[in-house]
Design goal:
The protein is an alpha/beta fold. It is about 30% helix and about 20% strand. The chain has a 6-stranded mixed sheet, sandwiched between helices. A 3-stranded antiparallel sheet has the order 4-5-6. β1, α1 and β2 form a beta-alpha-beta unit. It is globular, with a radius of gyration of 16 Å. The protein starts with about 35 loop residues before the first strand and ends with a strand.
C-alpha cells in the first residue's frame, strides 16, 4: 500500500519459488470446475477444532459448480485425498493447516484420521504424489508459509504441491476468517470460469475488501505458479 492504493488495485500478482520452475509448469487447459475435488471441515474428533464456516464454504462451492467429489467431516480424510486427488483438475481444501518452522517438511493440512492414516497431509507426503491439477487452493491457515531448509530452497506446502504436479497453488500467509474466506473463494471461482486465475484472485480480493475492508480479511491469499 502506497498510502493511496493497494497493489491489487493496479496489478494481478503471482509468486514463484524461482524462475527455473516455469519450464515445469503446464499452461491452463480448462476453466471448467466440474472435475474439482473439495474437502471441507474434516472431523478431528474434537468439537473445538470443527470449522462450520469451512464446511459451508465447501458445500456452497460444490452446489454452485455441480461438483460431485465433495468430502466432508470423516470423509475428508488423507486416505480419500490420496485416492482421488490424482484425477482432479481443481483441488480445494477447506481445513486447518499448520506450519512447523522447525521442521518444515512436517507442515501440512490436517485432515480426518482413519484406520489407514493419522489424517495429516505433510509436505513430505506431497513429494510422493503425482497430480494433474491445474490449480490447488488451500483455504486454510498458514498454508503458504515456508522455511529455508538448505541453500535457497524454500520448503512448504506450496512448493510441495508444485512438485507433485499442480500448475497453480493459492495459499494463505496467516490465520483467516471463515466468512470472509468463503466469500472470497466463491467469487474467485466465478472469475476463474472466465479466464486468468491471477486476475480471478485479484477481482475476488477487491470484492471481498468491499465487504470486509481490513486487509486481514482479504489479503492473506496469494497465487504461486502459472496464469
Amino acid at each position: 500500500n502506497d498510502g493511496k492504493q493497494d497493489l491489487v488495485d493496479r496489478f494481478n500478482l503471482r509468486m514463484l519459488p524461482s524462475a527455473s520452475v516455469l519450464k515445469y509448469l503446464r499452461p491452463s487447459e480448462t476453466h471448467q470446475l466440474d472435475h474439482m475435488l473439495i474437502l471441507g471441515n474434516p472431523d478431528l474428533n474434537n468439537p473445538a477444532h470443527d470449522l462450520p464456516g469451512a464446511q459451508a464454504e465447501a458445500e456452497k462451492l460444490a452446489a454452485k459448480f455441480s461438483v460431485k467429489n465433495l468430502l466432508l467431516r470423516k470423509n475428508a480424510s488423507k486416505t480419500a485425498f490420496n485416492a482421488l486427488a490424482g484425477d482432479a483438475t481443481f483441488i480445494h481444501v477447506a481445513s486447518h493447516g499448520q506450519f512447523d518452522a522447525a521442521k518444515p517438511l512436517n507442515s501440512g493440512l490436517i485432515l480426518a484420521p482413519d484406520a489407514q492414516n493419522d489424517g495429516r497431509l505433510r509436505v513430505s507426503d506431497l513429494y510422493q504424489l503425482q497430480l494433474d491439477a491445474e490449480m490447488v487452493t488451500l483455504s486454510a491457515c498458514e498454508t503458504g508459509l515456508g522455511s529455508v531448509a538448505s541453500g535457497d530452497d524454500v520448503v512448504g506446502l506450496t512448493r510441495g504441491f508444485l512438485y507433485a504436479g499442480a500448475s497453480t497453488v493459492v495459499a494463505s500467509l496467516w490465520q483467516v476468517d471463515d466468512d470472509a474466506t468463503a466469500f472470497l473463494m466463491l467469487r474467485m471461482y466465478d472469475h476463474i470460469q472466465k479466464g486468468n486465475r491471477r486476475e480471478a484472485l485479484r477481482l475476488a480480493q477487491l470484492e471481498t475488501r468491499k465487504q470486509f475492508p481490513h486487509p486481514g480479511y482479504w489479503a492473506a491469499f496469494y497465487l504461486t505458479g502459472l496464469n
